[in-house]
Amino acid sequence: LSLLSKGSNKRKSEEVNGEAKPELMNVEKEEEEELEEKVRGDIFGVIFGTTPPKCLDCRQYLDDPDLKFFQGDPDDALEEPEMLTDERLSIFDANEDGFESYEDLPQHKVTSFSVYDKRGHLCPFDTGLIERNIELYFSGVVKPIYDDNPCLDGGVRAKKLGPINAWWITGFDGGEKALIGFSTAFADYILMEPSEEYAPTFALMQEKIYMSKIVVEFLQNNRHVSYEDLLNKIETTVPPAGLNFNRFTEDSLLRHAQFVVEQVESYDEAGDSDEPPVLITPCMRDLIKLAGVTLGKRRAVRRQAIRHPTRIDKDKGPTKATTTKLVYLIFDTFFSEQIEKDEREEDKENATKRRRCGVCEVCQQPECGKCKACQNMVKFGGSGRSKQACLQRRCPNLAVREADEDEEVNDNIPEMPSLSPDPLSPSPNPHDGKKDYYQRVCIDSETLEVGDCVSVSPDDPTKPLYLARVTAMWEDSGGQMFHAHWFCLGSDTVLGATSDPLELFLVDECEDMQLSYIHGKVNVIYKAPSDNWAMEGGLDTEIKMVEDDGRTYFYQMWYDQEYARFESPPAAQPTDDNKYKSVFDPTIPNLHPALDPNTTTNTTNLSKTPESQISPASPAKRPKKEAVDEELHPEHYRKYSEYIKGSNLDAPEPFRVGRIKSICFGVRGNGKPNESDLDIRLENTHKSTKASYHADINLLYWSDEEATVEFRAVQGRCSVLYGEDLQQSIQEYSMGGSDRFYFLEAYNAKTKSFEDPPNHARSSGNKGKGKGKGKGKGKGKAPGPEQEPEPAPAPPKLRTLDVFSGCGGLSEGFHQAGVSETLWAIEMWEPAAQAFRLNNPGSTVFTEDCNVLLKLVMAGEKTNSLGQKLPQKGDVEMLCGGPPCQGFSGMNRFNSRTYSKFKNSLVVSFLSYCDYYRPRFFLLENVRNFVSFKRSMVLKLTLRCLVRMGYQCTFGVLQAGQYGVAQTRRRAIVLAAAPGEKLPMFPEPLHVFAPRACQLSVVVDDKKFVSNITRTYSGPFRTITVRDTMSDLPEIRNGASALEISYNGEPQSWFQRQIRGSQYQPILRDHICKVGTAPGPPDPTGSHRIPPGSGRGSGLGLVLTNDPRLGQRCPQSPAVAVPLQGRVLHPEQHRVVSVRECARSQGFPDTYRLFGNILDKHRQVGNAVPPPLAKAIGLEIKACAVAKLRQDSAGE
């Protein structure tokens, strides 16, 4: 009875206070409370024969008279996906430069809202329910982000939005009110006014939320104030209108202290690196002590909730990442809450862990080189005995503080004497002119030989010691010298501070140094991959490669400092000529004999095997700005830039193609050495650009026009053949390699007429009818054997596993390239998985969580719960995938929330697949922001992980529009190749594209990296435009729903012929669109866009244009196929674009099947990798596989 009385009093006190207990319960407290409820329920059962019920979700008593139920949604309320496509919420301004990724969640406001659990109980959302993965939903009226009026006019009624993944507070910038928001899987919502039924519940939360705003804003600018000053600020602050309380008191501050401190912690976490934390101010420390606040409580509860996955249903939250031990050791600190750990390993780690976190801002700073700890480090010439961190890099997250006296340990140990060279000892002494070379020297009783590794003292003592291999030693008039082949420290690569401090990398840098600069001899070990490397994946190997004795290092890779490429070191053997000079031969073979500067080499005989040059054309001229009638367009002044995202008006012309006639040097060329005949394109004739739209993009016309160009303008070699001399069809010839052109006619610029090409333009011995009317079939003699290039061997297709496959864009591109055969795919979303099955009937598609599948495979299982065979070690030759990337979005200010972190942690799961299966090739695709997220930390850890596995790897950013799709979409790509393979290069662009969308360099730790791409300005082919994408499709009405219709016409452009395929296909699928309000009469001056003054929204970067120059415009932002973020309008018809038009803008062939309702199909297309981009990458991987096959054949 006393226990019953105690429980009743506790419950009564909470009701008197009018709110639920603000502290969040951890799992242990929750279990104690459940036990107490059970005992109390037993007593009730004995006395009254009943148990007081309590909701298992919201934890409210079901017999509480104050418990309220949600009253339901009106009949016209829409589900969340459908609601987000409503035109009333589509407000994006086409001139916004910041929006470019379809993963960016749209932002809207919601008014008249109610929050409830799945049982319909109205409940607060600030009591830890969301953090413990309890499903909470909300309903209300959704309004555009720019609408500040909380009334219902102009909004869209929505029902059961959610579940809520996270809730957040922002607006700590001096505004009147704090902004409270929810995040779901589809959008972010800022709360306005609650519904009448939810107003009492929301009012209780507003008091502590607004108090948090007062505290943060006051302490931002008054960091040294006392607790009394804060109290005076709170008591004198008048609450804003609309809140149901009149004043704040100290009692309310102390009552809500736990909540306020948690918000301050959250605010500090989301702040910039240069912002001092508010939590450590004297005022906050006093409040924490006075109120007895527990720091980190909310994070602890979230961690505990995640640590017990058995308490979370499958649909309620993400599972923790399953990892191999190697991946776990590298990513543990960064994703500590999202990686599944072995409890025994975790306890052991917590008891012994003394290492820095490696991911905070402090850990990412370089050593200062000046403090006492740095001077003791071996890298700075010290003894290395104290093993103390740089005073500038003392990690604040270390679990155990290093004792102060440790800094003085062995402080009096004498430093190692610097090595001054004695006279060179006699040894084999070959002579080379005036230099006497030595194989061996003695310095301070230490013998140094050619091939040994040494540390070299820098000129600046605050810099770490340089490390090099001695490749030659000699004595001449300049003194005693040695040739140093430098190693690169891991911290000097793109890996930065995430690298192993003992790992070195070979680089192509060497230098002659005085022997006196040698500081000491070091041991550098080459860690070659084992013969059984591919089968060693997933083993419990230690991450430490060598023991840290201060003088031992290791290397595995050669590093390209410009392109950030990690490759296997070259295999070089010393010869008799250089055995005293160099271990690695630094010379570059001269491939071509030097030409006399006054001679001219005639290359007209190249017509037998036509080899032509490609040179860039002049840049396109910008159109002249026209005066704007400000009375007619009063908001025009808001257009801060004339640039329209996705516009192709500034795109350069494609390369000019010419046949080299002669190469001259010196005075004769007057600095312009190349003379060439130019082949011209149709757009350069009197027929202009309109005619080129219907022609093949690689069709040229022979011309007698000649030009003299500088050799540096030459971009590369291409192939130009007379169409009637081909043995194969023009399509087969064009697809047989890169940079292939053909011509059928000649063009006379004087008469503006097309003629038969002259005889010398055609290959000798290869004459056809010469009428220019051929269909591409060979009609003459076959080319001689000397003209046929050696056919490349066809390597077997790589057995591929596609993780996070979606509907299969990546696999489709690889299949088109002929590089892979996707035997397995993993995709949790059922509609996308079904679409993958439709297009890949021979593949096994798993619809389970990738973490669950990996755990089964690592446990030795052969099949999953459905009986599907799981791939085993040695089965997977290529691994590809694009882990979900919402958390990496640069537009998502709240990407550090738990939900986003779990999305990001799937990168760890993906790398664990790579570590376990050890495929020959690995590809990771993600949004552009992946390479810069959290100061590039995820990128650096990813590369660090691959390098530690033994993979050659690199990264880069590619623009999909340069590879043949009608949209701008920048994508980050990480490529890796197993030891013994050749690391693929990134494919050169094929199509010209808007220069502003092709800024592909990446800055990591203030270092700029570029990919190997050389065609940074232009390309061999014209841009693929909106007209190419959809002009041949039949006209449909707004809301068309027929899944299959006829084409009703022939393809009009090269792109349309390619996208339809070579086989006759009379049926057009998925040419359907959502019902939307027609945009009205087309605007003859531009495109269908919301006026610039309407504010920033979260829709598309540019709606399809209605400009009559449609052939010169490329389409909208990357999210063309994602209607959830805005309505994309057709350029000529009064409707939104159809599913098939979206699929074409991604480069999917018309035969590609999609599955589900219209929203499902739009989402499948929008989430996919453009197949043309994947094909270009696949061809590079195929070229590497061919090179390996040839190498193996030559070795045999």
TrEMBL record:
<dbReference type="InterPro" id="IPR050390">
    <property type="entry name" value="C5-Methyltransferase"/>
</dbReference>
<dbReference type="Pfam" id="PF12047">
    <property type="entry name" value="DNMT1-RFD"/>
</dbReference>
<keyword id="KW-0597">Phosphoprotein</keyword>
<keyword id="KW-0805">Transcription regulation</keyword>
<feature type="domain" description="CXXC-type">
    <location>
        <begin position="350"/>
        <end position="396"/>
    </location>
</feature>
<dbReference type="InterPro" id="IPR002857">
    <property type="entry name" value="Znf_CXXC"/>
</dbReference>
<feature type="compositionally biased region" description="Basic and acidic residues">
    <location>
        <begin position="11"/>
        <end position="28"/>
    </location>
</feature>
<keyword id="KW-0479">Metal-binding</keyword>
<feature type="region of interest" description="Disordered">
    <location>
        <begin position="1079"/>
        <end position="1099"/>
    </location>
</feature>
<feature type="region of interest" description="Disordered">
    <location>
        <begin position="1"/>
        <end position="29"/>
    </location>
</feature>
<keyword id="KW-0678">Repressor</keyword>
<keyword id="KW-0489">Methyltransferase</keyword>
<dbReference type="InterPro" id="IPR029063">
    <property type="entry name" value="SAM-dependent_MTases_sf"/>
</dbReference>
<dbReference type="Pfam" id="PF00145">
    <property type="entry name" value="DNA_methylase"/>
</dbReference>
<dbReference type="InterPro" id="IPR022702">
    <property type="entry name" value="Cytosine_MeTrfase1_RFD"/>
</dbReference>
<keyword id="KW-0677">Repeat</keyword>
<keyword id="KW-0539">Nucleus</keyword>
<feature type="compositionally biased region" description="Basic residues">
    <location>
        <begin position="768"/>
        <end position="780"/>
    </location>
</feature>
<dbReference type="InterPro" id="IPR001525">
    <property type="entry name" value="C5_MeTfrase"/>
</dbReference>
<dbReference type="GO" id="GO:0032259">
    <property type="term" value="P:methylation"/>
</dbReference>
<dbReference type="GO" id="GO:0003886">
    <property type="term" value="F:DNA (cytosine-5-)-methyltransferase activity"/>
</dbReference>
<dbReference type="GO" id="GO:0044027">
    <property type="term" value="P:negative regulation of gene expression via chromosomal CpG island methylation"/>
</dbReference>
<dbReference type="InterPro" id="IPR031303">
    <property type="entry name" value="C5_meth_CS"/>
</dbReference>
<protein>
    <recommendedName>
        <fullName>Cytosine-specific methyltransferase</fullName>
        <ecNumber>2.1.1.37</ecNumber>
    </recommendedName>
</protein>
<dbReference type="InterPro" id="IPR043151">
    <property type="entry name" value="BAH_sf"/>
</dbReference>
<dbReference type="GO" id="GO:0003682">
    <property type="term" value="F:chromatin binding"/>
</dbReference>
<dbReference type="GO" id="GO:0005634">
    <property type="term" value="C:nucleus"/>
</dbReference>
<dbReference type="InterPro" id="IPR018117">
    <property type="entry name" value="C5_DNA_meth_AS"/>
</dbReference>
<feature type="domain" description="BAH">
    <location>
        <begin position="446"/>
        <end position="570"/>
    </location>
</feature>
<keyword id="KW-0862">Zinc</keyword>
<dbReference type="GO" id="GO:0008270">
    <property type="term" value="F:zinc ion binding"/>
</dbReference>
<feature type="region of interest" description="Disordered">
    <location>
        <begin position="402"/>
        <end position="431"/>
    </location>
</feature>
<keyword id="KW-0238">DNA-binding</keyword>
<feature type="active site">
    <location>
        <position position="885"/>
    </location>
</feature>
<dbReference type="GO" id="GO:0006346">
    <property type="term" value="P:DNA methylation-dependent constitutive heterochromatin formation"/>
</dbReference>
<dbReference type="Pfam" id="PF01426">
    <property type="entry name" value="BAH"/>
</dbReference>
<feature type="region of interest" description="Disordered">
    <location>
        <begin position="568"/>
        <end position="633"/>
    </location>
</feature>
<dbReference type="Pfam" id="PF02008">
    <property type="entry name" value="zf-CXXC"/>
</dbReference>
<feature type="domain" description="BAH">
    <location>
        <begin position="636"/>
        <end position="758"/>
    </location>
</feature>
<feature type="compositionally biased region" description="Polar residues">
    <location>
        <begin position="606"/>
        <end position="616"/>
    </location>
</feature>
<dbReference type="InterPro" id="IPR001025">
    <property type="entry name" value="BAH_dom"/>
</dbReference>
<feature type="region of interest" description="Disordered">
    <location>
        <begin position="753"/>
        <end position="799"/>
    </location>
</feature>
